[in-house]
């Protein structure tokens, strides 16, 4: 490691006085081993899907979602695909009123606009009174943003876990819940009940979320909408587009053309 890299690493691990802004671009197959900080950290996904474990939970965050990691909470990540995200480090004195547990957050348009402005102007740390006030607005917006405990829940249930693992390996698998139940030597009703109990949602909702996350990566690789639809298990592009629009609020083609922050 060069002297410059050592200084940068020391700066990243040091406790910010207020807040600190930085960009991260990770290549595929990148791993961050288990570690923790003395400050709070917000990871705002720009492109790709972040796969991170924090506080004993797994978080999958698609673009425009953020993972909040409180101070002194251990976390690690391994990302199979290329990932772009922005980081907001928050001093302990500024974390008062923020959640003390990691979670997934969908940030407000106000937050996103101010956040993007700091990066556009190349501000790493607020220096002026005006920028300090804007930073405080970010914290206020963070406190009132909708919280999602997870985007794609997981389970260690002996009946359900093997089904979820198989689908994560092959999101295009269209095996019905009835057939999955037979493979697990149980009833469809029992497996459906386990989905609600363990995941907090239906089997079909979970599978759509999985396919949405997988579709994002495929679109960013430059695949056509038709090819992506087929790769995630849809027989027609129209049904895939309807699903994608439900989660992203826009069509796959428009999503692909969105600027990366």
Order of helices and strands: HEEEEEEEEEHHEHHHHHHH
Number of strands: 10
Within the largest sheet, what's the order of strands? 1-8-3-6-9-10
How would you characterize the largest beta sheet?
6 strands, antiparallel
Shape: globular
Helix-residue proportion: 40-55%
- Mean pLDDT across residues: 88
Walk me through what this model shows.
- This protein has helices spanning 3-13, 109-120, 129-144, 161-169, 177-183, 188-199, 203-220, 225-231, 237-248, 252-257; strands at 19-26, 30-35, 40-47, 50-54, 57-61, 65-69, 75-79, 83-90, 103-106, 147-148.
- The protein is of the alpha+beta class.
- It has a 6-stranded antiparallel sheet with strand order 1-8-3-6-9-10. Strands 2-7-4-5 form a 4-stranded antiparallel sheet, with no helix packed on it.
- The model is unreliable at 4-9 (pLDDT under 50).
- 31% of the residues are buried.
- α2 runs antiparallel to α3 (129-144), α5 packs across α6 (188-199) and α8 (225-231) packs across α9.
Overview in brief:
The protein has 261 residues and is an alpha+beta fold. The chain has helices at 3-13, 109-120, 129-144, 161-169, 177-183, 188-199, 203-220, 225-231, 237-248, 252-257, and strands at residues 19-26, 30-35, 40-47, 50-54, 57-61, 65-69, 75-79, 83-90, 103-106, 147-148.
Annotate the secondary structure layout.
Blueprint: H1 3-13, E1 19-26, E2 30-35, E3 40-47, E4 50-54, E5 57-61, E6 65-69, E7 75-79, E8 83-90, E9 103-106, H2 109-120, H3 129-144, E10 147-148, H4 161-169, H5 177-183, H6 188-199, H7 203-220, H8 225-231, H9 237-248, H10 252-257
Antiparallel strand pairs: 1-8, 2-7, 3-6, 3-8, 4-5, 4-7, 6-9, 9-10
Helix pairs in contact: 2-3, 5-6, 8-9
